[in-house]
Amino acid sequence: MKTISLLIFCILAINIPAVIAQDQDQPKPEKGQTVLFNDIYLGYGAGGLFYWTGRMKHNGDFPSDESSFKYTDPSSAGALLLGYQRSMNKVVALGFMFGYQNFAYTGTSTSGEKTEFNDILLSGMARVTFAYVNKPSVRLYSGIGFGITVNFGKATSSRQDFTDRKLWPGGQITLMGIRFGRAFGGFFEFGIGTIGIVNAGLSYKFAD
DSSP letters along 77-109, please? Predict the structure, then answer.
């Protein structure tokens, strides 16, 4: 019995280090995005609805409503967006999204005086997405979001500064979106809304 025990001990002593080394050499399976339920993303949006509506209307004492002004077309570098969503199951994800964009234009009065205008738009909305392909490294989805947009308007001239705040509806319809990658990844969306027609950015997913 002692001989058998000694033989078994010798076999284990020889083989256990080899098994451990073999296990360490084998790559650990990566967690796919399907089991990483939380998603934080940061991106850029181009061609939002407010870009196409032109100069935004303000209150009567705000100089941008004076008909004597001639205006340049509003210009914007686009929208920055930040969002979070949580997957409720393999299809539905719920979350929220925030957007920031700035529109600038110049008004010239009949007397030749110039006034610089800025519309700073802050958007916030609740959002739901529906995935129709949900693989470990690829997710295809559509979505819809509703919320509000706050317009902080400012006009600066040589004589006086004006400020005004307006509330507008906000929303985003994502006709087609794709997220690629596992924990770290990127996304690209096509749709229509106050954030943009085309949105793209980076995403990080993590488990509970």
Answer: --EEEEEEEEESSSSEEEEEEEEEEEEEEEEE-
Which domain CATH number covers 159? Answer: 2.40.160.20
pTM: 0.77
Q: What values do phi and psi take at 30, rounded to 5? A: -75, 145
* Average pLDDT of the residues of the chain: 83
Are the C-beta atoms of 154 and 162 separated by less than 8 Å?
Answer: yes
Q: Is residue 24 part of a domain?
A: no
**How many domains are there within the chain?**
1
Q: 172-202 burial string, b = 16+ CB within 10 Å, else e?
A: bebeebbbebbeebebebebbbbbbbebbbe
CB 168 within 8 A of CB 162: no
Of residues 68 and 90, more confidence is placed in: 90
Q: State the residue range of the domain holding 117.
A: 34-206
Residue 5 lies in a domain: no
100 found inside a domain: yes
